[in-house]
């Protein structure tokens, strides 16, 4: 199984267009300790020829241009992208669909709840149904995303997309709004969970024995955005568990037998994005890698 991290940052990217938090300031200054990152997306393949995108970031065109495996290969119009699977309806995960509208066929997989969110936004009607087949996926359903690449989606504690939240959002609920993905090629098993509010026993049991887990790395600590002076929401309120601390993801996953663990969907306020920071060293000590754009994983 081949996995390319197309974009490793959370919503906003790094640096974020309007942000001068400690990490973004270093990125704006071109400091070599902070590598810019685009928003959250993966490309996955079983054979290196036929690919699936998991989420479709607003920067998808740039991401494709710097990933030779995703270049068109023959004839006048072509793409090795067979399908796109969405894990939620957030803008960082669906915005790029508006740029993939030029009449190449692909399948767009999502739960019916996520499809409904797209249907409610008429701008997505630019995706011509003659070419883009919108396929509803049930939780726990197995599907073939690309040649030889089996996947299954499962509910993850999360919340509705920011623009659908309403007055009193239901945070941490499990349903069709936020899903994780299991990939299987032969006996190899990998997981992609870019948004997760809590690691419950069911999810932990699922991840046990995985060859690779790419996990929600939005925040280092729950009140990080408030401390940085750039927001008023905690990670918990945003539906993201933090990395550090007793209730953090590093602790929650520490007892599991997992071949390789990688943080993705990393918010620009997160100090692990600074290469030599104490937080980066702590994550590394716990066996975690910090994803960057262009990271290639073989599993
Ligand atoms: C999130 O992951 O919480 C969202 O992408 C936030 C956002 O839409 O900016
Ligand atoms: Mn996001
Ligand atoms: Zn920032």
UniProtKB/TrEMBL annotation:
Pathway: Cofactor biosynthesis; pyrroloquinoline quinone biosynthesis
Pfam families: Lactamase_B_2
Record domain Metallo-beta-lactamase: where: 51-266
Entry-linked CDD domains: PQQB-like_MBL-fold (cd16274)
Coiled coil location: none
GO biological process: pyrroloquinoline quinone biosynthetic process
Keywords recorded for this protein, A-Z: PQQ biosynthesis, Transport
Top-rank taxon, per record: Bacteria
SUPFAM superfamilies: Metallo-hydrolase/oxidoreductase (SSF56281)
InterPro entries reported for this sequence: Metallo-B-lactamas, PQQ_synth_PqqB, RibonucZ/Hydroxyglut_hydro
Keyword Transport: yes
Functional summary from the UniProt entry: May be involved in the transport of PQQ or its precursor to the periplasm.
HAMAP family, alphabetized: PQQ_syn_PqqB
Family from the record: Belongs to the PqqB family.
Descriptive protein name: Coenzyme PQQ synthesis protein B
């Amino acid at each position: 199984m081949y996995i390319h991290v197309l974009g490793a940052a959370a919503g906003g990217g790094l640096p974020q267009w309007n942000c001068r938090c400690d990490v973004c300031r270093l990125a704006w200054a071109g400091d070599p300790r902070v590598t810019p990152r685009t928003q959250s997306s993966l490309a996955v393949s079983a054979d290196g020829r036929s690919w699936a995108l998991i989420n479709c970031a607003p920067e998808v065109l740039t991401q494709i241009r710097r990933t030779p495996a995703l270049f068109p290969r023959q004839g006048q119009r072509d793409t090795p992208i067979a399908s796109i699977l969405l894990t939620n309806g957030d803008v960082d995960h669906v915005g790029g669909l508006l740029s993939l509208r030029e009449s190449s066929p692909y399948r767009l997989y999502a739960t019916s709840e996520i499809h409904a969110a797209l249907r409610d936004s008429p701008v997505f009607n630019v995706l011509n149904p003659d070419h883009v087949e919108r396929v509803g996926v049930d939780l726990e359903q197995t599907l073939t995303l690309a040649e030889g690449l089996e996947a299954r989606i499962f509910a993850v504690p999360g919340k509705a997309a920011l623009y659908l939240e309403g007055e009193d959002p239901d945070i941490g609920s499990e349903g069709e709004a936020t899903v994780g993905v299991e990939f299987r090629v032969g006996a190899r098993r990998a997981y992609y969970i870019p948004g997760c509010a809590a690691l419950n026993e069911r999810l932990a049991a699922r991840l046990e024995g995985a060859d690779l887990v790419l996990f929600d790395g939005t925040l280092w600590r729950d009140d990080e955005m408030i401390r940085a002076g750039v927001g008023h929401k905690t990670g918990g309120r945003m539906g993201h568990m933090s990395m550090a601390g007793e209730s953090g993801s590093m602790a929650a996953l520490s007892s599991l037998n997992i071949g390789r663990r990688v943080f993705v969907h990393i918010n620009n306020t997160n100090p692990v994005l600074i290469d030599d920071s104490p937080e980066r060293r702590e994550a590394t000590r716990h066996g975690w890698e910090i994803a960057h754009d262009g990271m290639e994983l073989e599993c």
